[in-house]
Amino acid sequence: DLMASLGRLASDKNTIMVVTTSHSKQILERLLGHLPIYLLPENGCIYRTPEGEWKYADALGCSCATAEDNSLAEVEEGTESTAGISSPRSRAASSSADTSDHGWMNGVEEVLRYFQERTPGSYIDRTEFSLKWFFDNTQTDFGAPQTRDLMIQLWAGPLANAEAEIVVGNRYIEIRPKDSSIASNLEKILHHEILDADSTSDSKVDTCVVIGAYPFRDQ
């Protein structure tokens, strides 16, 4: 039983467990909130410590991880990538999330709903920091062209000057704050919470095991 195995690992004082997901805080807390582990919903933009305290990764400072460019052709190929929106870095790190930093989200959702109405089988998932548009229940020869058109509309509209990026996944796209990949956020959280950021040796961890399926650009 998976939950029993996770419980045994979580109870081992010599084991540090971190669970990541792009889904919402509410979903992850409902499933695993009873375990004394690190929970990183929404690609680690927010996280919970084993003691139950919720924090924002933005307050930990910037990471050295960066996004790479890609092309619209990857939508048809079903590969995963990140399409960065070029604009000055202006987000200041803070201990709490300011919804004004993500003012682009309402405009993006409006465009997504427009395409949802015109793409049978597609659906939208909104969290505190990101939006996803899924077309896994649509015909590929219709869903892929619709997704390309959707991305063009987003680039030309609500994301034109926004601190946001588009991630192309397997039959979905995600719009999220720039530089908020699970890789960059996890790096910040691990160094702040577990590793000694001022030391060259990672003395607290001698073995690391990673299990999961992540977008290529977030690995």
From TrEMBL:
One of the GO BP terms on file: trehalose biosynthetic process
GO molecular-function terms, A-Z: alpha,alpha-trehalose-phosphate synthase (UDP-forming) activity; trehalose-phosphatase activity
Record region (Disordered): 74-101
Name of this protein: Uncharacterized protein
Compositional bias of kind Low complexity: 86-97
InterPro entries (alphabetical): Glyco_trans_20, HAD-like_sf, Trehalose_PPase
Source taxon at top rank: Eukaryota
Gene Ontology CC terms, in alphabetical order: cytosol
